[in-house]
Design goal:
With about 350 residues, this protein is α+β, with helices and mostly antiparallel strands. The protein is about 25% helix and about 20% strand. The chain starts with 15 loop residues before the first strand and ends with a strand.
């Protein structure tokens, strides 16, 4: 079998897309979402209603979001601005959420409405107890962890993976994430980074690229699974490559909770991968009314450190996991909820 070669074209693809809603559209969508019920009461009906609401986007913006989820040559991350927000928010939960006492569900409607344009929101029992809306909040006990509870350390470049007993953690994982900001950190310094695999590959030398395409790595299970199910021990995947797929449309996988390289050369390639991600990444400081559409297969994302005060006003994002189809993970479906998996 011949070794894949590096992409030699000098043409760099567009890997960050920007979308901004006009004020009138923001207000119209916000009014409709402000009277919508808690989506947990009937998620499928709520998703149908969100489809109606977001179908009122101007055609150009609607197509841009739909195309983001459809095509291999579109940007790996979309930055959506001027979205509606809740008129009033409760305190940021200290325990990682979900929040109590939320009077309206505009934020949830924004998150799930955008998600529905990309695919279907899904949940996993080992991540936020199967919730479809994840509250991403700093937690004192997890401040130094490589998880969404962390704050004081750089959250390494990764994609969101799902533990699977079949030994592959890149099969059941989400195709997309949506990250929506309800409240920024106090100093406004927390940045979300996204490194598109196409940009990363262009920054790699041929030897490193060859190693990263070889099955020389084992991914550790997500931090939530290791913490809540495995009692803190590593739960490693089968041997996998970090980069796979066609040369011009590569897929990239890396777990935040650790990747174990099988050789010293592979370990050096991992270090170079993280460096290449830092060199090529887009950086966004999310503010209320802004969201990121993240292709979880085209690239890796990260987060810079920030100071959490645990005072009810800390950084608060909401996140959804989205799959284009639930068919291929139907073996994991729970009996009680067809959107939630083991």
């Amino acid at each position: 079998m011949s070794t894949p070669t590096l992409q030699t074209s000098t043409h760099a693809p567009q890997t960050l897309g920007r979308i901004e809603l006009p004020d009138a559209v923001r207000d119209s969508i916000g009014q409709a979402l402000a009277v919508a019920p808690d989506p947990d009461l009937d998620i499928d009906r709520s998703m149908a209603r969100y489809h109606q609401i977001f179908a009122t986007l101007p055609l150009e913006l609607l197509q841009q979001i739909l195309d983001f989820g459809r095509h291999s040559d579109t940007p790996g991350v979309g930055y959506v601005r001027n979205l509606p927000v809740d008129a009033e928010l409760p305190a940021t939960p200290a325990n990682g959420g979900p929040a109590t006492g939320k009077k309206t569900f505009v934020a949830e409607g924004v998150l799930l409405g955008l998600s529905g344009l990309l695919g279907e929101p899904v949940g996993f029992l080992t991540e936020k107890n199967g919730q479809l809306v994840h509250d991403v909040i700093p937690v004192a006990g997890g401040a130094t962890s490589q998880t969404n509870q962390g704050s004081t350390v750089f959250l390494n470049f990764h994609n969101d993976i799902v533990h699977d007993a079949i030994g592959r953690y890149d099969v059941s994982n989400p195709d997309f994430l949506v990250l929506s900001c309800l409240r920024a950190d106090h100093e406004g310094v927390a940045a979300t980074h996204y490194a598109d695999a196409r940009d990363v590959v262009r920054a790699l030398d041929s030897r490193t690229y060859e190693l990263l395409r070889s099955p020389l790595f084992r991914l550790n299970a997500p931090g939530s699974y290791v913490r809540d199910v495995a009692g803190g021990r590593e739960v490693l995947s089968d041997l996998v490559p970090m980069i796979s797929g066609p040369e011009h449309f590569p897929e990239i996988s890396a777990s935040a909770n650790g990747v174990r390289a099988m050789t010293t050369a592979a370990e050096a390639a991992l270090d170079r991968l993280q460096a290449a991600c830092r060199e090529t990444a887009h950086q966004v400081y999310l503010r209320p009314g802004e969201a990121l559409l993240i292709n979880n297969r085209k690239g890796l994302h990260a987060r810079t450190p920030f100071t959490a005060r645990y005072d009810g006003a800390d950084r608060w994002l909401q996140r959804s996991y989205v799959r284009r189809s639930q068919w291929s993970i139907r073996y994991r479906q729970t009996e009680d909820n067809r959107r939630v998996h083991y």
